Amino acid sequence: MPGAEEFVPSGARLPGLREAVQGCRGCGLYRDATQAVFGAGPETAKVVVIGEQPGDQEDRRGEPFIGPAGGMLDRALAEVGIRRDAVYVTNTTKHFKFERTSGKRRIHRKPSQAEVDACRPWLDAELRVVAPRLVICLGATAAQAMLGTSFRVTKERGTVLDLPDRDAHVLATIHPSAILRSEDREAMYQGFVADLRVAARALRSLDAG
User: Is the Cell membrane keyword given for this protein (predicted)?
Assistant: First the structure.
């Protein structure tokens, strides 16, 4: 898999990156997706939230975290006092990977490690431009992209760590889509909020320092 590096314009800011990503052919996911879905939020954001990939609604509308999982993220961020409009949100891959059911519904499929690696230059470019103080990884795909494939969200969630090779910190938690699939949504949601409270406290501490 060739990867996205040749498609990422050197030194570009977010508008240039957002335009260029539509022409990315670094992996095969672009073939079935409606469009690339780039990150959204201010270049001055102190917090970057990274998910796995765009979902069905995001693919159709071209914006990240606007579906049910995004709504749950918004609710949880508000609950812990992190302003949603001050956060930059993105995903490890920029195209929706799916399979169609007999009823023509498009069901999410997890991107492969090769696809995550191929798309990594876009994520690196976003982090270069935004230069956050704190990165929040939602789910295993995002956490392992940032912290290595041996990282286990189930064991190390809710812990603030140094982000390798960057002057920033990172915290991993579950993806809000996991809450939506759970039989005990409220308990999972409260655990998610507890993790984000740790992130909010860490951010206040970083600001104070």
Answer: no
